[in-house]
Amino acid sequence: MEMEDQMESQKRRGISKDQLISERTGSLGCIGWFIVILSGIFTICLFPITIWFCLKIVQEYERAVIFRLGRITDRKAKGPGIFFVLPCTDSFVKVDLRTVSFDIPPQEILTKDSVTVCVDGVVYFRVSDPIASVANVSNADFSTRLLAQTTLRNVLGTKNLAELLSDREGIAHSMQSSLDEATDDWGIKVERVEIKDVKLPVQLQRAMAAEAEAAREARAKVIAAEGEMNASRALKEASLVIAESPSALQLRYLQTLNTIAAEKNSTIIFPLPMDVMSHFMKK
Fold first, then answer.
1. Distance (Å) of CA 13 to CA 2, 8, 91
2. Whole-structure pTM value
């Protein structure tokens, strides 16, 4: 907290972060330099043995932050490869630069429209500044995990249920921006945030299912009514065409007979036109 307050006060006075680190990595003082020189002489005198304590190696994905008598020795972390430390005065902390992913535990959240849901997610982050991740926060990984949980609750508390279910990408982007801004002083870069699952109460699921079923039935009735209306209009137009030509009705009879006769398992009653019967009755 003192480091954060100091950085804030320095920023207000227009001093950059590099200048602040430079102040923290300043002179060791007379006593400090005396101890360092004494440690160097001791290391040189016992060189064959102390070389194994001075020689350190970090991997390609790691960096080493070196402390000399409690002060950071350089603005830049050491590595990858081989570096040397003084065995009595120097200590170092390894920092992993690889992207780390973790699951946000399921959080029970009250949405803006007073609906209780259970939401979980996943966060991807990495260390962008090894010195800040060591000097500014006691445990950057654990702090980022806790901050992700509280940010998830704060962001989703401002959304209603419809936005929560339909705008997951926007919510994830908002969470990423908030987390990235909050962890910048810790040397953490939040790369991606995703909402994994939204669990609704069973009663709410049943209510939503009933609502969806009712909406589908209403749409089905509207579609059926529109179909009946279109069919009636087509029949009206067909009746007008048949009324203009009486022989069209007989052709329709023959077409119907052809369709029925294709099955070959029905008794066909063919209506005989009255004009044909009237011709025989006159004779």
1. 17, 9, 32
2. 0.64
